[in-house]
Amino acid sequence: MRTIAAFDRIGEENAFAVLARAGALAAEGRDIINLGIGQPDFETPAHIVEAAVKALRDGYHGYTPATGILPLRVAVAADIQRRLSVEISPERVLVVPGGKVTMFAAILMFGAPGVDILYPDPGFPIYRSMIEFTGARPVPVPIREENGFAFSAEEALSLMTPATRLVILNSPANPTGGVTPRAEIEALVAGLAARPDIAVLSDEIYGQLTYDGAEHVSLLEFPEIRDRVILLDGASKTYAMTGWRLGWSVWPDGLYDKARKLAVNAWSCVNAATQWAGVAALNGPQDCVAEMAAAFDNRRRIVVDRLNALPGIACAKPKGAFYAFPNISATGWAAKDLAAALLEKGGVATIGGPDFGVCGEGYIRVSYAASRKDIERAITRIDNFLGRNSP
Ligand code: PLP
Predict the structure, then answer these.
(1) Could you give all domains of the chain from N- to C-terminal order, each with its CATH number?
(2) The whole model's pTM is what?
(3) Phi, psi of 4, deg, nearest 5
(4) What is the pLDDT of residues 169-225, one digit of tens each?
(5) 143 near 122, Cβ under 8 Å?
């Protein structure tokens, strides 16, 4: 069947293909350690699970408002007030089935042939995929190791054209673990003053995972651009809830109703019990967030130290998220070849940097959202693999 051309342009996320391949190899009896997929290895905290079970028992089985239940929208606004000291109305919060859905909605809203959309490269692969789907021109903003894997305001501003309508930021970042410092964000906001026609999608899904005192700066903090900032956040990473499919976004007044209508057309509402779990997550004790972040921090140190001891590998210390992005160019391997060979022959799943954009060549992404034991075993396997195989 012929479909519209947009479906020939849509991409995907190779992390899911790697997950499937790792599963298939494991089903054949191979012992595979998965440092490929980006999801916490923790179970969702028990009080959150209980809230969902209770909601089901209490009869919350029907549709909810398309925008999400009011208690959850109030909880999201309160969380933003508590963490970011920014007051927003629950009327601007849209509850969505996963963080991804906000980027889907925002890119659909601005992307069209003749439009430029800036996005980080290397970056989450769905940004580019969705931009191409809409027919807009994807304009990569290089994210450079020598810049601490931070977003460069100067470079982004220099890439803006009269056709630019949306710029996508992600800090803390996937796949690099980079955290963009306040000065850089301020420079971007200042530059955007001259371009009121450009909206900003700020993907802050890893906002509570920063290390070594790195500061998470939210784009919502800047009143001068608040009428055009779309905030992407959700429960997946913060509360170990990837499979629940719970995200939320904050939209400017002028865009909120468009996003709401998209929700009505596409998914009606998020699973009701999941939304009550979200209320428990945001309103309940936050120690679980701190505990998981402390565990990631611990593993981060191990990953970086162990990777840096391997021949040909140089790994900068990531300041956020739960990914290390070691530079593997001195091994002589092309990044995707190395990731594929590590999976097939070495028993370790990682993701080749080019799966996150052309600027990812020379790197692989190693998720440290895995147990310390698995991380240690995996890096020993990588070491053995590099010792025995050449490109
Ligand atoms: N944004 C970034 C940068 C991510 O890394 C991810 C997931 O890996 C998402 C958004 C999507 O999160 P969700 O699983 O809630 O859709």
Answers:
(1) 6-44+287-386 (3.90.1150.10), 62-282 (3.40.640.10)
(2) 0.97
(3) -65, 155
(4) 999 999 999 999 999 999 999 999 999 999 999 999 999 999 999 999 999 999 999
(5) yes
